[in-house]
Amino acid sequence: MGLKSGLKEAAPFAAMVVVEWGEVGMVTLAKAALNTGISTFVYLVYYNSLGVVLLFPLFIFRTYRKKQHPLSLALLFRFFLLGLFGRGFLMFGYIGLKYSSPALAASLANLVPVFTFLIAIIFRMEKIDMRSPSSLAKSLGTVVAVFGAFVVTLYKGPPIISGTFHSSLHSQALVPQNSNWALGGLLLTIGFFSAAIWIILQAETVKQYPEKVTVVFFFMLFGTMQCAFISSIVERTPSSWTLRPGIAMIAIIYSAIFGVVLRFNIVTWCLHEKGPLFVALFKPLGMVIAVIAGLVFLDDTLHLGSVIGAAIIAIGFYTVMWGQAKERKTWSQATLVDENLRTKI
């Protein structure tokens, strides 16, 4: 029983680590694809459309296998908003990526936990009581984790290990073209704020409507329609929509399979199991993963700052996890006492 409970607790952690590793690969491939000349809007429409097509059989299978809760107009409107904020994050994010680099995108992703935590407090999804050890741990842990991620970004330090595997992507495809660091950073920041709103809204939606595959399918469907509408206005030249074999096609297929079918289902499940703060807290971890991926695949060098930052992130993460575990234990004990009182009455 203890082993089963331990595996259940470890599953969301392992799932989010997989998501962050996959996102680093997704951003790296996307940057390479965008630098070959494919339009950001065309890229988004193609990979999201393919993702919806791949999701459709799973949606049909789940619908016929399990009796679904009825869909209301209010719920469909919520799916529409999820699509709007979810695709808004992608549009601002990928346009910002085009003007900057994967490294800047990974570092600014550290703002997601801050935005999410603040929004969760404003909408009273997270309660802060500085007299409570659990609330104090969650607050301090979030700040520490984000601080650690910025240490990775801002403090290089002396080199420790040099990468040995050289990739052809490193030489040209990942070098920013038409670089505008300030504009790219601003667009990325807007995109990550939109991502924080999406995380909060998705967590609340899954609470109200627990059919996770249905939620993901409809929000992706609405989001893709919104993306296609905007893209058709921006990209009116037919030649812009021509897709040729190469890195762009590889990036589209990878993003559709991982970014749509796998990532959103995993994240939605984790939001239902652990809440928005847990999911958002893995964004700083993505910075560490980006450093590791750069070392292995892009011939980068591991510096002392990366190691120190990773250690700080780990401390912050486990502090928040302790706070959440403490809260759950307190809540379970209070529920048990309440049930005992009702039984005696």
Automatic annotation (TrEMBL):
Please provide, alphabetically and separated by semicolons, the GO molecular function terms listed in this UniProt record.
Answer: transmembrane transporter activity
TM region positions: 40-61, 73-97, 103-123, 135-155, 181-201, 213-234, 246-265, 277-298, 304-323
> What's this protein's family per the entry?
Belongs to the drug/metabolite transporter (DMT) superfamily. Plant drug/metabolite exporter (P-DME) (TC 2.A.7.4) family.
Q: Which organism is it from?
A: Actinidia chinensis var. chinensis
Q: Is Nucleus one of the keywords UniProt gives this record?
A: no
A single GO CC term, please?
membrane
Q: Where in the cell is it found?
A: Membrane
Q: Where is the EamA domain?
A: 26-153, 184-321
Q: Name one Pfam family in it.
A: EamA
Membrane topology classification? Multi-pass membrane protein
Checking PANTHER family in the record gives: WAT1-RELATED PROTEIN
- Keywords from the UniProt entry: Membrane, Transmembrane, Transmembrane helix
In terms of one coarse class, where is the protein primarily found? Answer: membrane
User: What is this protein identified as?
Assistant: WAT1-related protein
Top-level taxonomic group: Eukaryota
